[in-house]
């Protein structure tokens, strides 16, 4: 695939940049609209995203660079070439999480509520952003036969795009994009159910994405490694554990609140 979207003179705009931009814009609009349901001002959300977007990009890039220091220590100028790829979602999530914690404390806004609002946008953004990996010819899996791809009933342009280095490969970018989009649909529906409690959307995201990323990462051939360990799989396990723990805590809080109301009303002692 040609990674360049448009070229004007010496200026090149990459598909990767286009999809990342679309992911941020669509996700931001969705989050701002949802925040209004909880009387969180548009100004607060707009200012949050003004700082959050570059921090997420820097975190994602630094995380990737740290795991490729052998290359970037020799080619430091390439650190700035983010349009060529090399953004690690886990680095962006960590940086974004820390900033949101700081920002919500500063303005006395519920941290978990903001996370519940943003994770729906995040998973949609991931579904969109993976197509940038496709056009950059990255985030693919091991070699497969062309008949394997044809049996998946993929469009020809995807099959052609998976012909990399003289061989066809698993379209792991597509697996993750579809899984994230399905997760977005589920989370979008869940956010409007009356039984949903604070923190449960965030917990769902952690478990849903953690499971998928652990499995897909097992197929990828370009993983960020710490020795023989795929770091994305380690973080995915942590995400699932934290998500399950968060859901249990949320359910227990609801149960305790219910029991307290019964005791106060005199219905149960």
Provide a brief overview of the structure.
66% of the residues lie in helices and 7% in strands.
Instruction: Trace the largest sheet across and list its strands.
Output: 3-5-4
Overall radius of gyration: 21 Å
Q: Work out the number of β strands.
A: 7
Oligomer: single chain
Tally of helical runs: 10
Q: How far do the termini sit from each other?
A: 68 Å
CA-based shape? globular
Strand fraction: 5-15%
Largest sheet: 3 strands, antiparallel
Show unreliable segments: 264-269
- Give the helix proportion (percent range): 55-70%
On the 0-100 scale, what is the average pLDDT? 93
Which class do the helix and strand fractions yield? mainly alpha
- H/E series, N to C? EEHHHHHEHHEEHHEEH
What do these coordinates show?
The protein has 269 residues and is mainly α. Helices cover 66% and strands 7% of the residues. The protein has helices at 15-35, 42-66, 69-72, 89-106, 111-136, 146-151, 156-161, 172-190, 200-217, 231-265, and strands spanning 4-8, 11-14, 143-144, 163-164, 167-169, 225-226, 229-230. The strands form three sheets. A three-stranded antiparallel β-sheet has the order 3-5-4. Strands 1-2 form a two-stranded antiparallel sheet. 35% of the residues are buried.
